[in-house]
Amino acid sequence: MGRPILAIVGRPNVGKSTLFNRIAGKRISIVEDEPGVTRDRIYAEGEWLNNYFNMIDTGGIEPNSEDIILSQMRTQAEIAIETADVILFMVDGKEGLTSTDREVANMLRKSNRKVILVANKVDSHTPPNTIYEFYELGLSEPIMISASHGYGIGDLLDEVISNFPDDKDTGYEEDITRVAVIGKPNAGKSSLINKILGEDRVIVSNIPGTTRDAIDTPFNVGDEKYVFIDTAGMRKRKKITENIERYSVVRALTAIERSDVCLIVIDAEEGVTEQDKKIAGYAHDNGRAAIILVNKWDLIEKEDKTYLKFEKEVREGLPFMTYAPILLVSALTGKRINRILDLIKVVSNNHSMRIKTGVLNDIVGEAILMNQPPSDKGRRLKIFYATQAASKPPKFIIFVNDKELMHFSYARYLENQLRASFGLEGTPILFEFRERGK
């Protein structure tokens, strides 16, 4: 019994993404006055009157286009239609019926799904004369809305939830691990997700920048629930010329902020670049669990100990991420892909780990006995007490006599002792040093 799925389909530039953002209550899909901006299926959660559902925003359907991107957009829309319980077929109420609308309607009639016809860009209760043209499609009576102004959205959602199947669960879903897939353009992020999931869930193309949005792809492994967030590749700032690509960088950073685990994808042929360091730095600074995936490993010529040498180069390129495991993989051949999901579970559990206060202080006490705290000008650092203040990532408050005496190297020593005792692979650790009584 899954959550019902609502798909929003139609030709390009009729306002699908604007409606999607309106229902989601936040700006998720990129909205730009340019046909074809939403290229992939964009996933988000929607809610109306305590009924929860998943939404899919699709790239505009151009039924007869031979353009490689438009063709894949059509394929993505077809997949969305196949998985949806209810379909919102959006048309432009101002422009009226077009030949493309007719062809999309023909596709939808073959879907055997509930189709709700939505006429967008109608800003008043008085319908324009163009509305009556849509009756010839033989679908439901068009519901008139203005996605940009919010007119008619409530009536539309009433109709949507009344058509969800009875065997679907509209309750709130918790305990989902969100995994952001981040990296430079064309590093193979979408290909990796498709390989892990075993199906083409996101568009794959060798044109850098194909993925412009952050695309949420839910999936389950046994009882574990996950969402992959495939982000637009982050380019260097000077190379960002389109408004859309500027949005994409912001969207990728937002994806990191709302994720639990970041898969940092690096191109094996290029190695760790300055841009890779910045991208990984975003994840580290936001305290996210991380796994470093070096993709296109199949293209590297192998010699004796090539794996170890490459792993060492990655460590040297990302010295602030010594806690993150490294996998050298190939989305093309499937090399080591089967290890990724298990590793995600490990680092996610470590990221949310909570350590009992008594156990924590035992470990800190043993660490002090093995290596005395530093002293300065006759004053020695004293550590009184430690407690865990938060998780995701684990944050520890350590009470001391004088926090100015806490040297960076000793803080690193304490971190290493905690990692040795509890593992904590894949997650950063935060320390806050407080003077007792403050």
UniProtKB/TrEMBL annotation:
<dbReference type="InterPro" id="IPR016484">
    <property type="entry name" value="GTPase_Der"/>
</dbReference>
<feature type="binding site">
    <location>
        <begin position="10"/>
        <end position="17"/>
    </location>
    <ligand>
        <name>GTP 1</name>
    </ligand>
</feature>
<feature type="domain" description="EngA-type G">
    <location>
        <begin position="4"/>
        <end position="168"/>
    </location>
</feature>
<dbReference type="Pfam" id="PF01926">
    <property type="entry name" value="MMR_HSR1"/>
</dbReference>
<feature type="binding site">
    <location>
        <begin position="57"/>
        <end position="61"/>
    </location>
    <ligand>
        <name>GTP 1</name>
    </ligand>
</feature>
<dbReference type="GO" id="GO:0042254">
    <property type="term" value="P:ribosome biogenesis"/>
</dbReference>
<feature type="binding site">
    <location>
        <begin position="120"/>
        <end position="123"/>
    </location>
    <ligand>
        <name>GTP 1</name>
    </ligand>
</feature>
<protein>
    <recommendedName>
        <fullName>GTPase Der</fullName>
    </recommendedName>
</protein>
<feature type="binding site">
    <location>
        <begin position="230"/>
        <end position="234"/>
    </location>
    <ligand>
        <name>GTP 2</name>
    </ligand>
</feature>
<comment type="subunit">
    <text>Associates with the 50S ribosomal subunit.</text>
</comment>
<dbReference type="InterPro" id="IPR032859">
    <property type="entry name" value="KH_dom-like"/>
</dbReference>
<feature type="binding site">
    <location>
        <begin position="183"/>
        <end position="190"/>
    </location>
    <ligand>
        <name>GTP 2</name>
    </ligand>
</feature>
<comment type="function">
    <text>GTPase that plays an essential role in the late steps of ribosome biogenesis.</text>
</comment>
<feature type="domain" description="EngA-type G">
    <location>
        <begin position="177"/>
        <end position="352"/>
    </location>
</feature>
<dbReference type="InterPro" id="IPR006073">
    <property type="entry name" value="GTP-bd"/>
</dbReference>
<dbReference type="InterPro" id="IPR031166">
    <property type="entry name" value="G_ENGA"/>
</dbReference>
<keyword id="KW-0677">Repeat</keyword>
<comment type="similarity">
    <text>Belongs to the TRAFAC class TrmE-Era-EngA-EngB-Septin-like GTPase superfamily. EngA (Der) GTPase family.</text>
</comment>
<dbReference type="InterPro" id="IPR005225">
    <property type="entry name" value="Small_GTP-bd"/>
</dbReference>
<feature type="binding site">
    <location>
        <begin position="295"/>
        <end position="298"/>
    </location>
    <ligand>
        <name>GTP 2</name>
    </ligand>
</feature>
<dbReference type="InterPro" id="IPR015946">
    <property type="entry name" value="KH_dom-like_a/b"/>
</dbReference>
<dbReference type="GO" id="GO:0043022">
    <property type="term" value="F:ribosome binding"/>
</dbReference>
<keyword id="KW-0547">Nucleotide-binding</keyword>
<dbReference type="GO" id="GO:0005525">
    <property type="term" value="F:GTP binding"/>
</dbReference>
<keyword id="KW-0342">GTP-binding</keyword>
<keyword id="KW-0690">Ribosome biogenesis</keyword>
<dbReference type="InterPro" id="IPR027417">
    <property type="entry name" value="P-loop_NTPase"/>
</dbReference>
<dbReference type="Pfam" id="PF14714">
    <property type="entry name" value="KH_dom-like"/>
</dbReference>
